[in-house]
Design brief:
This protein has about 525 residues and is an alpha+beta fold. The protein has helices at about 145-155, 185-205, 205-210, 245-260, 295-305, 335-345, 390-395, 410-415, 415-420; strands at about 10-15, 25-30, 40-45, 50-60, 75-80, 90-100, 105-115, 130-135, 165-170, 215, 265-270, 275-280, 315, 355, 365-370, 375-380, 405, 430, 435, 440, 445-450, 460, 465-470, 480-495, 500-510.
Length: about 525
């Protein structure tokens, strides 16, 4: 029976993660208050022709609570569909039974593509594997622009190759540490505020989350600025001086990362013989006093992945690697021992490496020689999807400064572990691809200065996301990579086809070996 009661309510969510060639993990539910758990619900999975291939029933007792100590109103369920076909197009529908009309009502739908067994051939009719990369989303003043830009590129691109198959969000999907109401000394109020922030941010990101499978990694604002070392000069974080408040804050933040974002600590996605992708949460398990980026067990997994590469590799991280010391906030270089061990592993095989990251509020592509085995290192940064506003913008705005000039930073060579791990390495000049005609880089996102109503004081990087497309050469000589920058608020209107598309900011292509 045709569904007569479809509303597409943004209060509900249905999105996929952990996609493979034959399976996908789905998250359904709501983060809003005062929403009743359906007595009877289901998730239907249909193929590209609309034929139902899987269905999962959800009873009232099956629902879980994403933030157990806050409210019984928010609920979710996460599960995996298996037995799917590689490179398949599927549509998942989250539905509830309406006893008053005796019919199923669709609450939210999502489109997902399973992974191909191998990367498509370059310059063939096959669509390359295309990944959308973004970070740093602040819903105030966004007005649906991120969703509109992403939806247009996904559903109606001028070139079908540009439509993303996957989305990597590399941190600050939520800002849990902005607002003077966070100074409350009541743990229950802090928990409720965090849950409310997730609901607000997820509503703004819903058009992104429902198109293609999404992998997320947390950065500091999923916790609080500078996590795990709060800056108590920041008035938003004064409440963290109270051990009870800090414990409640960190516990609830972790629930959001694990239950809502479903973030991996370390996870590897393989395209045998072509490409290997490693996701590494280099934020949530830091131990500053010990200089550890993550637990020794998890770091060992990342190092083993890098040391064992037989193809080009992609490392997905919440922060960049080509950095120098930041006097205001810790970055990966501050964990110098683990940082050097990671660099040594990435440069050990001579395979080209691509780093996908965010955090820094500018978008760019740079490259540099990696180690002494002949590898190239490409760092692809996308930040922000949507800028902070008003007084918060003063402290978050940033621009691409064509720095650092050398990599690795001299601090790495002076560190005892760095001397050993990077033995034989020499500092290399970072290629920023300078563009003398505009004073920046050929492959970065321009900045904008605006004083309109003090919404965006100063100069900020234009809101954007990137796409990175991978395909393999027929002769087996390597992988073709194309990076494109897309402006969220600068759009092209196609009146004839009634579509709005983000404008292309730059295009960067290279061969990976």
């Amino acid at each position: 029976m045709a569904n007569r009661y479809y509303q597409g309510l943004s209060e509900f969510h249905c999105y996929a993660t952990r996609v493979t060639t034959k399976s996908m993990r789905l998250w359904v539910g709501t983060l809003e208050r005062d929403m009743h758990k359906p007595e009877k619900a289901r998730v239907r999975l249909c193929d590209g022709s609309g034929r139902q291939v899987r269905v999962r029933q959800i009873r009232h007792a099956d629902w879980e609570r994403p933030f157990p100590a806050t409210s019984q109103d928010r609920f979710y369920k996460s599960f995996t569909f298996t037995g799917l076909r590689p490179a398949g197009i599927y549509r998942a529908s989250f539905e509830r039974w309406r006893a008053d009309v005796k019919d199923w009502e669709i609450l939210r739908s999502a489109s997902i593509r399973t992974l191909p067994k191998r990367l498509p051939l370059h310059r063939s009719r096959a669509k390359p594997l295309t990944i959308a990369l973004g970070s740093c989303y602040w819903p105030d003043q966004d007005g649906g622009r991120v969703g509109t830009a992403y939806r247009g590129l996904y559903e109606h691109p001028r070139r079908p190759h540009d439509s993303p198959d996957l989305t990597f969000l590399t941190g600050d999907q939520v800002y849990l540490d902005v607002g003077f109401d966070l100074r409350s000394g009541v743990p229950k109020e802090v928990r409720r505020r965090i849950a409310r922030d997730y609901a607000c941010h997820w509503k703004g990101l819903s058009d992104v989350l429902t198109r293609g499978a999404t992998y997320m990694l947390p950065d500091d604002h999923e916790w609080y600025n500078g996590f795990p070392d709060p800056d108590f000069n920041n008035p938003y974080l004064w409440a963290l001086r109270d051990p009870k408040v800090r414990r409640a804050w960190e516990q609830t933040a972790r629930q959001g990362i694990e239950n809502v974002q479903q973030c991996p600590v370390v996870e590897i996605m393989e395209f045998p013989g072509d490409l290997s992708i490693c996701f590494a949460d280099l934020r949530s398990f830091r131990r500053p006093k010990l200089g550890c980026l993550m637990s020794p067990k998890d770091l060992k997994r990342v190092l083993a992945w890098a040391n064992g590469l037989t193809t080009p590799g992609v490392l997905v991280s919440p922060q960049p690697l080509i950095v120098t010391k930041n006097p205001h906030e810790a970055n990966l270089l501050d964990y110098t021992g683990d940082y050097c061990r990671l660099l040594a592993a990435l440069g050990s095989t001579g395979r080209d490496i691509v780093l996908m990251s965010g955090d820094v509020h500018y978008g760019r592509v740079v490259s540099v020689k990696l180690g002494n085995q002949g590898a190239m290192f490409y760092e692809v940064i996308s930040s922000p999807l949507s800028n902070l506003t008003y007084v918060n913008a003063w402290f978050a705005n940033s621009q691409n400064r064509l720095t650092p000039k050398q990599f690795p930073d001299p601090r790495a060579f002076r560190h005892p572990q760095g001397k050993q791990a990077l033995s034989g390495w020499q500092p290399q000049t970072v290629n920023h691809y300078p563009d003398k005609t505009k004073g920046g880089s050929m492959y970065d996102i321009d900045s904008r200065t605006s004083w309109r109503q003090w919404v965006y004081p100063g100069t900020r990087t234009r809101e954007h996301f990137l796409t990175i497309a991978f395909s393999r050469y027929r002769d087996g000589s390597g992988i073709h990579m194309t990076v494109k920058g897309w402006l969220v608020r600068d759009v092209d209107k196609d009146t004839r086809r009634k579509r709005i598309l983000p404008k292309l900011a730059f295009r960067f292509s290279r061969k990976l070996t």
